[in-house]
Specification:
Rossmann fold; seven-stranded mixed β-sheet; 7 strands; S-adenosyl-L-methionine; 9 helices; single chain; binds S-adenosylmethionine; alpha/beta; globular; rRNA_ssu_MeTfrase_G
Length: about 240
């Protein structure tokens, strides 16, 4: 029996085949993360299979195979609360013609990502240190992005308040979630009414190795987000919409 390789699994689960160059870059990213992790605690996910599934596969699963994205366009993308660079870095590797902004409030993490960008020669990506609540009001970032990604940063309505201000009208926010509860969807819809967005798709997938449940919630910005959002630093988490 042929044992499936990671490449086979990509093809089966995402209908997509990475190039040799992309595979090599992920290997470099993995090795860099292991190296830095000896000095600072960047991520708990360091075993090869777990890294592949939870960091690489998961990051890409949120943006691959969507009929409402024009993949050939040079999309402007922001990853909010990127941490060690997920989902942003794997996406930056597979779409070199997209322009990525990796945002995190922790200076230490952004410094490390800058090292990764250098090692990976990723000139399509830039980093920003700051809180989404503050950066989302700056004219150079507000309403400037086609795609906003957010994984493991907070509850859905908080994520929506962070993401929507960054999107152009027609732009798409992607919330990376594990389980997806009815009450979360009700709360998210109520928040989106205030923020100028609507849910256009809820996609459920199983991860290819451990068969864990993933949900990707796609939000479209339909009208301008009122100036009062995002609210002051800390308020979205303290008092979700
Ligand atoms: N997205 C990464 C992932 O899925 O591996 C990191 C998730 S980590 C649990 C949450 C990250 O969000 C942290 O790096 C934290 O510094 C950042 N963060 C939390 N609140 C933020 C905010 N308001 N603005 C910007 N970054 C924020």
């Amino acid at each position: 029996m042929k044992i499936p390789t990671f490449e086979d699994i990509w093809q089966n689960s995402l209908q997509w085949q990475p190039t040799q160059e992309q595979l090599e870059k992920w290997e470099i990213l993995y090795q860099e993360i292991l190296l830095i992790n000896r000095q600072i605690n960047l991520t708990r996910i360091t075993e090869p299979q777990e890294f592949w599934e939870k960091h690489l596969w998961d990051s890409l699963a949120g943006v691959i195979g969507l009929d409402f994205l024009n993949y050939k366009d040079s999309l402007k993308v922001i990853d909010i609360g990127t941490g060690a660079g997920f989902p942003g870095l794997p996406i930056s590797i597979i779409f070199p013609h997209w322009q990525l902004t990796l945002l995190d409030s922790t200076q230490k993490k952004i410094k490390v990502i800058n090292l990764f960008l250098e090692a990976l020669k990723l000139s399509n990506s830039q980093t920003v240190v700051g809180r989404a609540e503050a950066i989302g009001h700056l004219p150079q970032h507000r309403e400037k992005y086609d795609l906003g990604l957010i994984r493991a940063v907070g509850e859905p309505s908080v994520c929506a308040e962070y993401v929507l201000p960054f999107l152009k009208i027609g732009g798409i926010g992607v919330l990376y979630r594990g389980n997806w509860e009815t009450q979360e969807e009700i709360n998210l819809k109520a928040a989106l009414k205030k923020l100028g967005g609507k849910i256009i798709l809820v996609k459920q997938l199983r991860t290819p190795l451990t068969k864990s449940v993933r949900h990707f919630i796609y939000i479209k910005k339909v009208v301008l987000t009122p100036e009062q959002f995002p609210r002051d630093v800390g308020i979205p988490k303290q008092k979700p919409l």
